[in-house]
Write a structure and sequence with these properties.
Largest sheet: none
Distance between the termini: 43 Å
Number of helices: 4
Helix content: 40-55%
Structural class: mainly alpha
Number of strands: 0
Radius of gyration: 14 Å
Strand content: under 5%
Length: 100
């Protein structure tokens, strides 16, 4: 397999899209301190996208339900809250401003 030095930085982030803040993700089982902000955003976007797409075992969730399920992942400590807010805002949901 050939490697592209131009895409190396993107690949490093993209490879973390299934990691979760609590270490329950894969393939590396990283925890919050080892997951950079861009990968946290990508992970939240991946979850939201997966929820809104149909699967063989279920229909696609409506956006409001996907929002609730993604928020539940935040409350469980698996997905970053600020990243989730960013993803939901881009997807057209209303989000509360967080104090910085």
């Amino acid at each position: 397999m050939a490697c592209s030095s131009v895409l190396a930085g993107i690949a490093a982030v993209a490879g973390l899209h299934h990691e979760r803040l609590d270490g329950s993700g894969y393939p590396r089982g990283l925890t919050a301190t080892a997951i950079p902000a861009p990968a946290r955003i990508l992970a939240a976007a991946d979850v939201y996208h997966a929820l809104t797409e149909p699967c063989p075992h279920r229909s696609a969730h409506l956006p409001a339900q996907a929002q609730r399920l993604l928020r539940a992942e935040v409350l469980a400590g698996r997905v970053d809250g600020a990243a989730t807010d960013a993803v939901l805002a881009v997807a057209g949901h209303r989000v509360r401003c967080r104090a910085g």
